[in-house]
Specification:
- By secondary structure, the protein is of the alpha/beta class.
- It has a six-stranded mixed β-sheet, with helices on both faces.
- Helix 1 links the parallel strand 1 and strand 2.
- The termini are far apart.
Length: 187
């Protein structure tokens, strides 16, 4: 049976808050989602995620750190617009917009609905620096992200194309209109 929902952790575990997605996936081991949901840590393997998006799920939820100008640790739920051909596909790397473009390039069918559960990072190192620990506000957001997924997944299983539930405070949801993935998404 093909899972109806894919929950994909995205990010580099050696780059501080960029490890948010993998940490949420690890936390879900203690609070699993229903069997209709495939939960997987893709880390920085964009090609693997592109193929997973083509595997027949109805909805994909990418869990990632994404700078959006909020307080560190703030969660946002974003609905990604389908790639429009302006972003070049890339087989190496984990920029979510480029992964969606790659999946579109590789597949014959439309992509599933793609949502991003994003956490505002506090620390995203640049260059060759390695920081394997999450900042305090992002670490505190991991549990809230698990709670958000446990609220979001039943709504998506009941109505895969329906409106997104509000995340509640101190989290936020985007307006009900689709929004593009952030251009500056880490990974």
């Amino acid at each position: 049976m093909t899972p109806r929902i894919l929950v994909a952790g995205v990010g580099n575990i050696f780059l501080a808050d960029d490890a948010f997605g993998p940490e949420v996936i690890r936390a879900l081991e203690h609070r699993p989602l229903p069997p209709e949901v495939r939960v997987h840590d893709y880390g920085i393997r964009g090609m693997d995620l592109a193929y997973a998006l083509l595997a027949g799920c109805h909805t994909a939820v990418l869990v990632d750190a994404a700078p959006r100008g909020h307080r560190p640790g703030t969660l946002s739920l974003i609905e990604a617009e389908p790639p429009d051909g302006t972003v070049a596909p890339e087989a190496h790397g984990m920029d979510p917009a480029k992964v969606l473009a790659l999946a579109t390039h590789l597949g014959d069918e439309p992509l599933p609905r793609v949502l991003v559960l994003a956490c505002e990072p506090q620390t995203l190192p640049s260059g060759d620096d390695l920081f394997p620990d999450l900042s305090t506000p992002v670490r505190e957001a991991v549990g809230r992200a698990v709670d958000a997924l446990h609220a979001l997944v039943p709504a998506l299983l009941a109505d895969p194309t329906g409106p997104l539930p509000a995340l509640g405070r101190p989290m936020e949801s985007e307006a009900p209109r689709p929004a593009a993935l952030p251009d500056a998404a880490p990974g």
